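Handout, tutorial session.
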Amino acid sequence: MKTTFKKSFPFIFLIIIFVSCSTEVVRQHQEFQSEINVYFNKDADTSYAFPNNKAKFNINFEEVLINRIEKATSKIDMMAYEINLPKLIDALIKRASEGIQIRFIIDAKSHDESMVEDTSTVERYTQMRLYLEKMSRGKDLIPGTDDDIMLLADSPIFTVTDTTLRKKYKLPISFNDYENVTLKIGNKNISGHLLVDAELKPGCSDCYYSPGAQMHNKIAIIDTQWVFTGSWNFTITGLYGTEKDMQNGNLNGNQNHIVEIRNRQLASIYLKEFEEMWGGNNRKPNPTFARFNKRKTDNTQHIINIDGRRVEVYFSPSDKVLDKIINTVEREANRSVYFTIFAFSYQALVDVLKVKWEGSIEDLQGERTNFDLKGIFDATFWNQWWSASINMTGRTPKQTSELHPMRRWKNIPPVYRDRDSRKLHAKTMIIDEGVVIVGSANWSENADANNDENTLIIYDRFITNQFMQEFRKR
């Protein structure tokens, strides 16, 4: 959907009123039309579509992102929880060799973490480190030259030393052009050839944080114009399913969505978040000034207007995102909430929905209201004692805690376990079919208080209708 700003008096008058109600709203000049595009990698029910508003479904996200990368004219900034897509990596390396500045923030994982899910011949983190080295070396395979992709992580990442794997991924046998170091990571001294530097602890030149919290974003900011975000990790399992599926172009991966928005103001907000984590605005990262996780501050604008649409943007953990979602539900949800979620455990949000549904947060108490609530949980956590699915379906949890008390619902709403062969990985809430909440963050204490995440709240019935089409197909 493409619209343009109309420079008429009534529109300006409305903007003036909106700005007077929220000092956070500041318009920026841009020389292009704003766009909001939504894509789904699974089916959608387009019979529910508004006229000329059919959802874009069964879409290859990798192709969409590569298309944006190929059209970049100056710079690309990305954040990823994981990356192992060869075509995407090759596209980034190619653009870096053509003079596009590329900065990339990646989540570090423990060397003890197996990450064996859906792995073929190499363990996933080992495979990712091999791909990161290819990115770091650039097209000429020499680190420290102009065609390199600049990398930073939340915790240090070391090279893979296995000769067989290095040959397989067409890397030089020698890794001695990466410095051999001994670093204090958390409370352990770890040695290796440093591939990706990370945020330093204050007052110590070789002290780093352990990779406990997740850098869980999946973001691309292109030319400070386009923002590409959503629930999709840049992985084979996230889109295709298996390597064979990838080779055959089969979209058998996890259920996900992506949102790409062309708007300079929103891109500038995401860039500010990126550069807080990067440690500055230079091509190379500054580990001394980099800030991840709880060390970040709430320093970005949160409310903007995109061609008459209110859009809110929040980052975890600095912005207390789940409180913002709860406030939105309390304020905007008068008729209905529909959701699809991978992991949902945040009790305060469960309580708000229980009050909407049956007027009480007390265990097995409440009378049915006229509020409509429907939800789909990923099967992975459906039976976990801490999952919202337990109390919502009136089941007795195996255990409780202060954060997860027993507050079973008396009137069981239509919430179900997903039956897809892969994971339901979305984090989507549709409110009164006019507001949609999307992003990288699951609705959990960990995502809200520890992880680096991003969340968009979009007030637009047409965009929301596209998410409704996808929801009805689930």
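The second record follows below. Compare its token runs with those of the first.
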Amino acid sequence: MDGKLRFLVIGAGQRGVSYANPVSQMAKAAIYAVAEPVNFRRQHFGKTYIWGQDGKPAAGQEFSDWKQWLAWEIERRELEGAGKTVPPGVDGVFVCTLDAMHVEIMLAIAPLNIHVLCEKPLATSLADCMSILGAFSRNPQEKIFSVGHVLRYSPHNQLLRKLLLTDRVIGDILSVEHTEPVGWWHFAHSYTRGPWRRATDNKDGSLLTKSCHDIDFLLWLLSQAPDGADKEISAHLPKTISSTGALNQFKRSRKPKQASEATNCLACPYERQCQYSAVKIYDDARLAVGHTHWLNHVVHDIEDTLHLSGVDAARRSLYANLEQDYIKGVTPDEEIAKRPWYGRCVYESDNDVCDDQVVTIKWDEDNQSPLYRPGKLATLHMVANTEKECERRGIIYGSHGELSYNGKTIRYFDFVQTQETVIETPDAPEFEQKIKSHGGGDRGLTTL
């Protein structure tokens, strides 16, 4: 560990793992500590990335929540300042908790003057974002403050930006159609049954939690100057931004008549015919075939149960969670809202976020810039019911050509040469594909 930058991960879920995995492979950095309230997740994360399968955590490496770590770190610094011998602290923190928790954590750790990467979105309101920015603006410039807008950092998107802005393979960009296909089962899991199914107090919903980094991706391509351009050249900012969306699929009026009054998949007569069946999604398509990714959202220790006690015990644990339900008008709303309900009928859930939304961004012509930038238009379409899961795709129309992309392949056609060029970009490592690492963007941002 000597000479390496030490990092704490707050939140050992999927996003925490997505950042910890590439850090653990770096020569000059290491995951040193974890703060996570779910015991199984904390232990599994620690054994995988910190103290090893047969080891035990040292002082300052394991915490049940971020506040426990913060109190420990403040005391450690006080003792160190008094000349006492203390365990090492961390040089940086990855904040990978639920969105609504970000602002409290970020404001609390800002005075520590350490490197920070906060998972997107930074916060769930503009006021909270500005508060965080103000708190961190007081820190020295050499400390890194970053937000997990990882789409910028995938090899595919890095090449895409170079082709468009540096090589100008289709000339000036005039129009962009970008689609975020969430995935039919993924939307049901996360945004209908899961923790992001309700809009925030500011009425922000799935667009913020799922696609804010798609907006960042578009601004990165269309507003920022090309790499190597004069740093004095200002960004080409949009003139207008508008959005419209709706909840069209996941609501009671769309419920199949054959499902009758059932509110839970385990008691539904239509379960075998329903594409959103929790039994199909979590057992048939996952547990039954040994695929446990995402199942730990439903049962935190299911992988441990499967390994130690077998598939039947894991299935009993899974179904015990899926059969849990509530009664509208009887169960207090605060009880319903505070947890996911993965066995709940998607047509009977308490979700209210859009499952289909379009954002339109318009730029006016900028003929004062030395780059001369024409007016342009971009649309982002976030849509739930898709075959592909988070495999972004789009078409970009230029003054001299047309380009399409899908996260793996970039194809462009030159109007002048009447010639097509196709480029295949390399796949992310197998583990990163499994955990949906944004085409290597998680690794790209972490190891930058």
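Points raised in discussion: DSSP finds 15 helices and 14 strands in the chain.
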